[in-house]
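Project standup — Tuesday

K.O.: blocked on the structure for the chain from last sprint. Re-posting the sequence here as requested.
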Amino acid sequence: MTTPRSDVEDARLNVATQDHKSLAAASQHGSDSDIAPPTQRARLFDYISIARPDHWCKNAFMLVGTILACFYHPEFISLNSIGPLLWAIMATCLIASSNYVLNEILDAPTDRAHPIKRYRPIPSGRVRLWLAYLEWIALGACGAAMAYMVNAPFFVAGMALLGMGLMYNVPPVRTKELPYLDVLSEAVNNPIRLALGWFVVSPMAIPPMSLVISYWMVGAFFMATKRFSEYRSIGDPARAAAYRSSFRHYDESRLLVSMFFYATASALFLGVFIVRYHLELILSVPLIAGFFAVYLRMAFKPESAAQAPERLYAEKGLMLYLLVCVVVFVGLMFVRIPFLYELFNVEAARMPHLWEI
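H.V.: unblocked you, prediction finished:
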């Protein structure tokens, strides 16, 4: 059983090599001397691919923060807001890519133990390290400069995203080597993205902490599911430990238990948010719980897309279910059902209603 390649990885291999067999043989020996000389286009594509632009879709999580902030401050909604939002998204993408490049550089030694990731540009020797480090610095500097031009809170959140990349990848901290911290430290990028989207609209306040923590735990659930699927796919504890140090501690049962914890914590804080701000959203909970169940079921499939969240768009059934969840959740924001408050013995929020525009 092997880990699936993304479309970008497949394209990179086709462009960068003229013979797949020679690439595999050379990569196993950690040498690029036997690889057919790549074209200039292939070299450029390798440097682009380590920035992982195909992962930029993850920054869509920013939009939740932006939408929520717009409900707090409807006076900020206008066509003039589109430009700053697109600028902010691009800044976030560059900061994220800077982290991805650093991840590719520092993971190269262990990626050689992975059945598919050993073919990446750096472990297979197709990228010069000094140029990769220069790319990491340039992307981070450009992203930081763009973030500074949005507003001060957005810049601070952007630096937090950049800082988490350092903590996750760079020794001696390198949280990706530590069980559970590897998941939690990577998942914290979810609430940071939420804050980035929020600060574009509302730089003078912070989003509700109950939703921030719930967002964090949702990300932890997704990341733990990714680890679970990776571990099952590798199928050899020794090889898994050589690829990722945290796998020395993990096994399938421990990962499943952690996934249950993250899902439960996310549900708890989402419940706090719902009761505090808009009880009608409780009607979306069965759908959301169903999404957790469907996602978990997907992780048990061979070559599961859970190993590469950027490929989830190919799971049409899952994407349709997610769309239904989002439409129902957003739709309920505009609905008032007084009976629910009587049924659950909950008082309506005394603050100005969050969802009124």
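K.O.: great, moving the ticket to review. Residues 1-35, 352-357 have pLDDT under 50 and may be disordered. The chain has two domains: 1-202, 208-357.
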